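Format notes (please read before filing issues)

Several people have asked whether sequences and structure tokens are stored in separate files. They are not. Every record keeps both together, in the order shown below: the sequence lines, then the token lines. Line labels are part of the format and must not be stripped during preprocessing.
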Amino acid sequence: GNSEDPRVSMAEGSKPGEPPAACPLRRKQPAPGAGGAEPPDAPDRPLTAVARVQGIPCQAAKVEVHGNSEDPMDIVPVASIPAAGRGNSDDGQAWLNPSAGQLFRALKRKDKAVPLEDALPIAAVHVMVTDQTWKGIMEYESLHSDACAAPTLARFEGKDGIYSPKAKLLNFFGINLPFDRHDWYVDRCGKEVHYIIDYYSTGDGENIEYYIDARPGGVVGVLDRMRVAAKKVFSGQVPW
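Then the structure lines:
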């Protein structure tokens, strides 16, 4: 860990400055068949498999960091999510992702311990997952940008094993249940908005792909989901 270089390479087999060829995370529906506080939590159960995928994906290849630590295990990524004053940054205005060391210890506490050598790539994937989850949420929040230009993440909770009605319905039609679920609560300039996030995976070994299904809950949330789907249809995209 050279403290003069603010980046840490996470991609196995990649040359410096070269991003990996593929990204195993898609923010789509699957096809049938720095304080010690933890970050906005991200799915951690299958990440050991992700860490062994050849070429840790896209934006996880190089993770910008801050601080002066010489040990990559202690470096906290710069990537963060805006917080509603209760974040784990020093000023409470951001949710910071954990360092590899923090994540390693957190997984051990949860009885989901991983090998020490997997900690750095898992931390890189954690950054990517939280970033993609927030982007999925912001797709809906953009519908309300006139009322609130800068929404923030107020709080979050893990609900592993508590399946959403949508996940149960998709499972009825042959889609595997998500391996994890989180609920995130967004502060839309004083109004708290509930988001449900289901995390799916398909494939095995080095061919695992992950899907993030982030959407707003409640009646208003259903209307927003219809608006986003319609927008995608009219722009020629797949609406789910």
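For reference, the curators noted about this record: Confidence is low (pLDDT under 50) at residues 1-39, 41-66. The longest strand covers residues 191-202.
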